[in-house]
Task: structure prediction
Amino acid sequence: MGEFQILKNDEALETVVKPQQKPIELLKALIAFGANDVRERDLAADLWPRIDAECAHRSLTTALHRLRKVLAHDKVIVLKHGRLSLDASCCWLDVTALDCIVDEIRSCLSFMRSHPAQSRVHELTDRLFDIYRGAFMSDEGKTPRYENAREAHRNKFIRAVGELARFWEGEERWDEAARLYRRGLEADALAEGFYRRLMLCYGRLEIGRAHV
Result:
């Protein structure tokens, strides 16, 4: 989320080795396509659209070999039955972490479960914003492979913020709800629904002050 970055032992990859462009582009595309069970032919066609399928596959094989050398870890990328995956036991992806925290939020706030503690809601909120640092691959422009994933991750984030804010609205904690919508707008200034809900929260706060 935000600009693309690879960390090895908490150090940015570019400070360790100058990565070659095409292998890193392969890694970015693999993540954009979901990072799990991505067909080789789909990646090859996307990365080398102007050459025939056989040449594109050879180029993909070469780029994959070079990428493994750049990452210095052969087992990070698994190739099985013509499909590529990133091994979660070898690497951490913030997009995967986003999915996990969104699931936790939905589970915590489910009406079928007991009412969560406010401290738990604060914890989930902080974790969500720690992970969502901006649009997916924000430095990659409007390339379709990134735009599709970018919109999907953005929608997950917006829904999660909305669910958290509705918890505070249900508690009539309009100050907390407003704070959450403001944080949401700092992360995504185009989330129009946040503006409308924020105005509602401000209105409720004014009514509350008038009755004091």
User: Anything to note?
Assistant: The longest strand covers residues 77-80. The two ends are 43 Å apart (CA to CA). DSSP finds nine helices and five strands in the chain. Residues 161 and 184 are 7 Å apart (CA to CA).
